[in-house]
Specification:
Elements: H1 3-13, H2 17-21, H3 38-50, E1 60-64, H4 70-79, E2 82-87, H5 90-102, E3 109-113, E4 125-131, H6 140-150, E5 151-163, H7 173-183, H8 191-201, E6 204-210, H9 216-225, H10 229-241, H11 249-260, E7 268-275
Parallel strand pairs: 1-2, 1-4, 2-3, 4-5
Antiparallel strand pairs: 5-7, 6-7
Length: 278
């Protein structure tokens, strides 16, 4: 991965917004038809995503872009599986290693600074996961080729990622600003890019599920209205954005309002899965 992307990731994730806001697993949760807290919604999302994988102590999972290890620790504690976390940001991996040690999970979970694209070692995994991370990786074809290589025969991947659910989309300037503020970059790729990369890599039984209605929209509203997390989010945005965004603030606020009300979707959150042939 090139130096520019590395620097962009470090700028966004050296101060981990999830950690700052008290969101241990990701920036989203999963809300069903009944109200739950943000913490409960975070747990629900992991259960919804990973229960179909039927993980157990014999499984070995690779977590791409696993950050501070929240998801990996949760998987190890719930299923007893081994997990290797890789991430480009050294500060994230350092925090992950501290958390793993504090939980007494050194025998199950490891974390290393590593680029998924240049990853090269002999071990194979039963599963590969990634939560809201691979949209940062520009070469999707190479990424899925690497994933195919490091999965055992019959191995599965499950990931969530932000993408455009359109073949062609030209975001406005305000859209790009919002993308940068929320995701750390001003562009995303279309669903078709992912579909082509997965097929070309050799995966079978791929499944794309748009989970925006259960994750993105209620997460925005619930985080903003949360009495503890809401003020933290507003403070965070002021600190990282500086004065240059003040002129744009009314436009950004109106655009985010439309996003929360589902009247104009800026992007979607998808759950994507696939399997390496036996």
């Amino acid at each position: 991965m090139n130096t520019t992307i590395n620097q962009s990731l470090e700028q966004v994730y050296d101060l981990d917004i999830c950690d700052y806001l008290g969101l241990p697993y990701s920036m989203t949760g999963y809300w069903a038809n009944h109200p739950v807290s943000v913490a409960e919604a975070q747990e629900h999302q992991l259960e919804y995503l990973f229960a179909p994988l039927q993980l157990n102590p014999s499984c070995h999972v690779l977590d791409i872009g696993g950050g501070q290890g929240g998801c990996a620790i949760w998987l190890a504690k719930k299923y007893g599986c081994k997990v290797l976390v890789i991430d480009l940001v050294e500060a994230q991996i350092s925090a992950a290693q501290q958390r793993i040690k504090a939980e007494g999970l050194e025998d199950l979970v490891a974390a290393v600074t590593q680029d998924a694209i240049t990853l090269d070692f002999s071990q194979k995994f039963t599963h590969i996961i990634s939560i809201e991370a691979i949209f940062h990786i520009p070469d999707k074809a190479k990424l899925f080729q690497k994933m195919f290589k490091f999965l055992k025969k019959g191995g599965e991947f499950k990931l969530t990622t932000h993408l455009y659910d359109k073949a062609v989309y030209q975001p406005s300037l305000i859209d790009k600003i919002i993308l940068y503020l929320v995701l750390g970059q001003d562009h995303l790729e279309s669903k078709s890019i992912y579909e082509d990369a997965i097929i070309q890599a050799g995966f079978q039984d791929s499944c794309f599920e748009n989970i925006s209605a259960q994750t993105l929209y209620p997460t925005y509203n619930n985080i903003v209205s949360d009495p503890i997390i809401g003020p933290k989010l507003r403070t965070y945005l002021k600190e990282i954005n500086g004065r240059w965004t003040l002129w744009f603030y009314p436009l950004i606020k109106n655009r985010l309002l439309k996003e929360c009300q589902k009247s104009e979707r800026l992007y979607d959150l998808y759950s994507i899965s696939g399997k390496k042939p036996e």
